[in-house]
Amino acid sequence: MSQTRTWSPPGPYDLHGSLSVLRRGPYDPTYRTEADTIWRATRTPFGPATLRLTPRARTVAATAWGPGADWALESLPALLGEEDDPAAFIPHHDVTREAHRRNPGLRLIRTGRVLESLIPSVLEQKFTAEEAYRAWRLLVRRFGERAPGPHPNLWVMPEPRGWLRIPSWEWHRAGVDQKRSSAILRAVQRASRMEEAAHMDLEAALHRLQLIPGIGPWTAAEVLQRSNGEPDAVTVGDLHLPRLVGHALTGRRDTDDARMLELLAPYEGQRHRASRLVLLGAPRMPRRMPRHPVGDIAAL
Question: Are 65 and 148 in contact (CB under 8 A)?
Fold first, then answer.
């Protein structure tokens, strides 16, 4: 049985642009797009749920299925970005000013769920995106469950005990090394403590996540951008982001984390939003080095 709800954004709204951060690659089994409709499968505190989200003239129509449907619909405004305040952002560079102007409907979403962002973020540590997306897809489809509702090809990730039951050779088959699988297993063993971070302020939440060995500043920020909608959770330790920010704001391509943080200092409180707008508005940086080769741990 399905349940429905609508949400009216307080101004211009870009549903696909706002929720796109939840999609882990073009074949993410937990997130599908069909024309203007988004299908999302999630594991709520009350069990799995499926959301179908469709933009209307001035609203977003949501239909939910599954044991977690009530929770998913109750949390819908936060998921879609109602708690975000784009007006708090003050541009200090032409790039961010123009990107902010061109994307008035972009909002920072808040899922309220930590593990569903933490696990794929751990998979993405020092992996190419293609490798991480493949691992996420294989593990969810093999050890998760079909999402409730009518979509024939939508899946919910495993519950914490399900992740703990994955044999070591299945991690290997998915191309995930022991360092990353161990970090995921340590996190799911403390699932309730991890989920508490969704209700903490930024400093406390970053500290909570990084108590788990194998979860550093990069992963913690990537998670809290999604689970908490944190506008200041700037990503450090990324291979590309400092160079992209530096090139966009100064024309230099040798920027490191320390210099990136200096450049983003005027945006304190909004540094994640600023870096996201930079990525939306900056000209493409010429490539100097060959693309990182895709490895195959499963073949070793």
Answer: yes
